[in-house]
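Technical annex, item 7. During the second reporting period the consortium partners agreed on a shared format for inverse folding records so that results from different sites could be compared directly. Each record opens with the tokenized structure and is followed by the designed sequence. A conforming record, contributed by the partner at site C, is shown below for reference.
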């Protein structure tokens, strides 16, 4: 079932290591087939070097396993919740990549300081609020999805394809699993550059709004003109 989607999700999971976004088995990627209403996700705790397409777990939109013999990623309820909350996304990546996680642990949004950020994110990259004890004790992973969706009441998920979960790490998404990986690599790069910029000049200002919009909209939306047509 879903051989093409499995291949893509496997390739995306292997790219986590290639781009040095993960340590050990931390991190996970999923993809969704919206028509068939099936999600393919990495199994929990399996080494990337051992991972095959057959190890991937197929779920329905309730998060129930419909194919696969391994347990799905422990973050599965977060992925499932986000697919429902953000109807136009096709893939999700979660990592504890070091620069993005440093921002998440500091509880700070990543401010837009330059055009690299502006090319992909039309605002600051938000950090969620801290979770309440009750949200942590019961249905923690589901509540992580809810707190992300709550944060995006103030943002457009299609124009800000990633978030920092407070005290935890980044979740990124995209049109498919590989696009979500691309956004995760960009987020990590932007997080590192923002850190260095603030170290070099603690009074640094966010990018001028006109320049920010110029860069974002030349790559996104109806009037985009970046790249080959
Ligand atoms: Zn995590």
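Designed sequence (site C submission):
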């Amino acid at each position: 079932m879903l051989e093409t989607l499995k291949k893509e999700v496997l390739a995306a999971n292997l790219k986590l290591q290639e781009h040095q976004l993960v340590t050990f088995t931390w991190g996970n990627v999923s993809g969704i087939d919206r028509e068939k209403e099936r999600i393919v996700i990495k199994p929990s705790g399996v080494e990337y070097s051992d991972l095959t397409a057959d190890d991937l777990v197929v779920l329905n939109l309730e998060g129930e396993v419909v194919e696969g013999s391994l347990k799905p990623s422990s973050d599965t309820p977060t992925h499932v919740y986000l697919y429902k909350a953000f109807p136009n996304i096709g893939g999700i990546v979660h990592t504890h990549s070091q620069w993005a996680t440093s921002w998440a642990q500091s509880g700070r949004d990543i401010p837009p300081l330059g055009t690299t950020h502006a090319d992909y994110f039309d605002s600051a990259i938000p950090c969620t609020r801290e979770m309440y004890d009750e949200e942590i004790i019961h249905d923690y992973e589901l509540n992580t999805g809810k707190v992300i969706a709550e944060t995006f009441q103030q943002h457009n998920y299609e124009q800000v394809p990633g978030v920092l979960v407070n005290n935890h790490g980044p979740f990124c998404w995209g049109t498919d699993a590989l696009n979500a990986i691309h956004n995760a690599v960009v987020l990590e790069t932007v997080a590192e550059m923002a850190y260095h910029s603030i170290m070099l000049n603690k009074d640094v200002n966010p990018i001028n709004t006109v320049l920010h919009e110029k860069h974002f909209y030349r790559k996104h939306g109806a009037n985009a003109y970046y790249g080959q047509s």
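The mean pLDDT is 96. The first strand starts at residue 28 and ends at 33. All partners now use this format for quarterly exchanges.
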